[in-house]
Amino acid sequence: MNSKLIEILFYLGKFEDFEYAYRYIEDYSEELDTYTMDELDEISTEVQERTSVVIKYIIFKDINEIELRNRILKEKENIYVDKYIVCFLVLNKNIWDIFLYPSELLLSSISKDSFEAILSIFKGTLKDYNINNKLLEIGEDLEELLYRNAEKLINLKKANKTILQKIINIIKRKEYIIEDTEKPYSKLVKNVDINDFLNNGKNNNKH
C-alpha cells in the first residue's frame, strides 16, 4: 500500500466551515479520489492492527460541560478499551482541550511536566493556531512521548495484567469515518455536516 497515502490518512482532518483545515489535502486530492471510503477504511484497519493508541478527534460546538462529559462517556463505550489507549481531542467554544482514557495509565508512565507540555499545545483559540499544523504537532509529540517511555510502559504492562491488552505497540493512529463509502474522500470531506458526523459518524470499529 502506498506509504504516502497511509501518511495522508493519518494526518487528514474534517472540519465544517474551517477553510484553512483543507489546505493540507489540496496537493493530494487527486490521489485520494482514486480510493473509495471502503478502501481507505481497509487501509485504516491495517494500521489499527499494529496500534495501541487511538488519537480520536471530536468537534463540539457551543456545548455545555455536562453534555460534553456525556458525549465523551458515550464515545468510550464505542471503543475497544481493553486494547487501546484513547486520546480525545475536543474543540469546545473554540478552545482546544484534551482527554485521555485510561488517564491513569499514561500519567503513571509519563512525567507530569512532559504531559503538561503536550497539553499546552491545545491551550489557544482557533484565531491563534492553524488546526492542521497543531494536529500534526500533537500526533508527533504524543508519539515521541510514548516511544520515549516505552520501557516504563512495558514494565507497567508486565506488572499489571489488567492493562496487558491496553499496550501492544506504541504507535499513533488517527482515523476518520463518514457514512457514505462510495464518494471520493475529498468530496465527502468538503461536504461533511458536523451534526451528521457527531450523530452517525462515530461507529463501532474504530471509535
Can you walk me through this structure?
With 207 residues, the chain is mainly alpha-helical. The protein has one domain (3-200). The protein is built from 10 helices and 3 strands, in the order αααβαββαααααα. It has helices at 3-11, 29-32, 37-48, 65-77, 103-107, 112-120, 131-148, 150-159, 185-191, 194-200; strands spanning 53-59, 85-92, 95-101. The protein has a 3-stranded mixed sheet. β2 and β3 form a beta hairpin. The protein starts with a helix and ends in a 7-residue tail after the last helix. Residues 1-35, 43-62, 79-136 and 156-207 have low confidence and may be disordered.
Q: What is the helical fraction, as a range of percent?
A: 40-55%
Class derived from helix and strand content: mainly alpha
Assembly category: single chain
Mean pLDDT: 42
E-strand count: 3
Number of domains: 1
| Count of separate DSSP helical elements | 10
Low-pLDDT windows of residues: 1-35, 43-62, 79-136, 156-207
As a whole number of angstroms, the C-alpha radius of gyration is: 17 Å
Determine the strand fraction and express it as a percent band: 5-15%
Order of helices and strands: HHHEHEEHHHHHH
For the sheet with most strands, the description reads: 3 strands, mixed
Tell me, briefly, the overall form: globular
Spatial strand order of the main sheet: 1-2-3
Terminus-to-terminus distance: 23 Å
